[in-house]
Design goal:
Elements lengths: L12 H5 L14 E3 L6 H14 L8 H9 L5 H4 E5 L5 E9 L7 E9 L8 H18 L7 E8 L4 H9 L3 E12 L17 E5 L5 H11 L11 H5 L11 E5 L4 H6 L5 H8 L5 E8 L5 H4 L3 E9 L8 H15 L4 E7 L6 H7 L3 E12 L1
Parallel strand pairs: 4-5, 10-11
Antiparallel strand pairs: 1-2, 2-3, 3-4, 5-12, 6-11, 6-12, 7-8, 8-9, 9-10
């Protein structure tokens, strides 16, 4: 179990969140509102993909992905979501507030929502977003976690300007910028990938179920010093895997770790220490990859997507993450994928931008996180 950090210098979260006693009433557009249920998944999928197409977003979702949202036990759609239906019973707007059970350094509430393109300009989005912000404040206030807190919303850089204006008028400010990158894999003879030799007892292996938990621990350690990142609980790590491509994923293990030195290292977290004492495998670098076939037509090419990539902090500089990434890229190419794709925080502390550029990745589009910090 991760230890929740405390911030004694902060005012109580209930005070900082400034939660309203009641949520705003939704009246714009004459829609009928209620909480979402799992039975709404098909209608929600259609609405979300319609919005994505209208806003030129570079992805589409599948029914399996939407169903997976409802299956996660920490999501409380009964109180943290709202759907708006027109007089004919068609879904025309949705809003959802999500918090994560593993947050130990910053308590986060993310807002997801949108309005059908045919119903924009009626004030629905403005009222809906106000409802989401108010609900996020209630959730944070009731959390009992005395941590720094954040209400966040994501936006595509080239999305509708009206969305950015809505967010900024509500007090949200841009905090982080992300670049979606791709690397051409169609002619590796003309543009070869470099070879990497791992040192010591490090060994590159295909991802396997037996190494899944060790990979989660490596990920939590690798991202511990990344802005906005929080540990994944086992429950979180196992969810959201509808696009997971284990056949494309790779990890680097240390076959003979210096257990004494790692246990004495202040960077070694409690869960990793317990795994080391138990003699469990130690994953030190990893590339977990995804296959989004529904996006091939949208982007106009086939690709493999690196969802998470990292190296344990004590192993940085030994090319473990690079080895896993290159193996992934070769797996994509072997399966006929035209490109390798990934998303990177432009202020990543590991210098990932430079690494990806050296491998031939170039930017295709960008997105940002806007937030209210509490």
């Amino acid at each position: 179990m991760a230890t929740v950090e405390t911030s004694p210098d902060l005012a109580p979260i209930a005070e900082r969140a400034d939660a309203p006693a009641t949520l705003p009433t939704l009246t714009a557009g004459g829609l009928t509102w209620r909480a979402a249920t799992a039975d709404d998944a098909p209608a929600l999928l259609e609405l979300r993909n319609t919005i994505a197409a209208a806003d030129a977003e570079p992805y589409r979702e599948t029914l399996e992905e939407i169903t997976d949202l409802f299956d996660a036990p920490w999501r409380r759609f009964d109180v943290d979501s709202v759907l708006g239906f027109d007089a004919d019973g068609a879904l025309r707007a949705y809003g959802h507030v999500e918090t994560m059970p593993g947050d130990t350094r910053t308590l986060r509430a993310f807002l997801f929502g949108g309005v059908h393109p045919s119903r924009r300009g009626e004030g629905i989005g403005r009222e809906l977003f106000a409802w989401q912000v108010a609900r996020a404040r209630q959730v944070l206030a009731a959390s009992g976690k005395e941590l720094p807190a954040r209400i966040g919303v994501f936006a595509e850089d080239d999305g509708p300007a009206s969305k950015l204006r809505l967010y900024e008028r509500a007090g949200f400010e841009p905090r982080r910028f992300y670049s979606d990158l791709r690397r051409d894999l169609r002619d590796l003879e003309a543009a070869p990938l470099p070879d990497v030799v791992l040192d010591g007892s490090l060994r590159l292996v295909p991802f396997s179920t037996a190494l899944d938990e060790a990979t989660r621990l490596a990920h939590n350690d690798a991202f511990r010093d990344h802005w906005g990142s929080e540990p994944n609980t086992r429950e979180q790590w196992q969810r959201g895997r509808t696009g997971f491509a284990p056949q494309w994923s790779h990890v680097v293990v240390d076959d003979a770790p210096d257990v004494e030195a790692l246990l004495a290292d202040s960077r070694t977290d409690d869960e990793t220490a317990a795994a080391l004492r138990a003699g469990e495998p130690l994953v030190v670098g990893y590339a977990v990859n995804l296959r989004f076939e529904e996006d091939f037509a949208v982007r106009g090419y086939t690709f493999g997507y690196t969802g998470v990539l990292g190296t344990r902090r004590a192993y940085r500089g030994r090319k473990a993450g690079l080895a896993a990434l290159l193996a992934s890229m070769r797996s994509f190419a072997a399966d006929g994928m035209e490109y390798a794709c990934l998303d990177v925080d432009t202020a990543n502390p590991s210098g990932a931008d430079g690494l990806y550029a050296s491998l031939g990745y170039t930017k295709t589009h960008g997105s940002r996180l806007l937030s209210i910090e509490l």
